[in-house]
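Annex B. Sample input.
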Amino acid sequence: MPLDLLAAKLSKCRSRRFVIHSDLTIFGRAIPKYKGVAIKSFRQKLDAEVLAIPTFNLNTNSSSIIDFSMLDASMGSLPAEAISALKDTDGFRLPNPIHSYTFFPSVDGLEKIDCGKSFGTNSVFDYFYEKDFYWVEFGTSHGDGLTIFHHLECIAAVPYREKIFFDRIVIYNKRKYTVTYEYYAKKNNAYVKNFSRALNYLTDNKIVTKISHGNRNIFVGNVKEISISILTQLNIDPYFLVEKI
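Annex B, continued. Sample output.
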């Protein structure tokens, strides 16, 4: 089973804190057995001290009202399981209008994360770095996960992105308010992301481990080690994570 493969790899990690981006179709016909118990199963199987699941709000615009009691349906099965688990499990969903992660359990320090931005200093990705999390891509394609790379683009101040600000209306704990949000956006459409080169670099240099399951893959790496490595490459080549159209 893919979860057993992941557990075996993570058992050797120095930290028990994990960020998991997932596509649960990697389970194949076993998917139904995880319905309603996925968060509990992952925490127990991985012996996780802290589990962070992306429960993002990506499909929004200025007219959207983001209700944190609900989830963008495009996020997939494990994020949906995370929102459902909050009803009877100790956890905390960050009130971030775009990159909202849900943590199990709720731990000290989450309230210090700046939820008025996606990337950069004091963002949730900075928190993952400081708290020594491991990053897990569990069956995802290269284009669906690895959001940490966008954070590193921000830290490196790559020339094809820039900071922008916009407003989002949110409902959190039954309170409605407006957030002026900082985002690191593409300047134009001259470049598109291409994470394959970076992921190959990380696996070739044993910074990230690749685990194969059938025709699907699992990737595991320490956030600090990934960050240092990719930032070094971005210093050499600011376009390391993109390709020109």
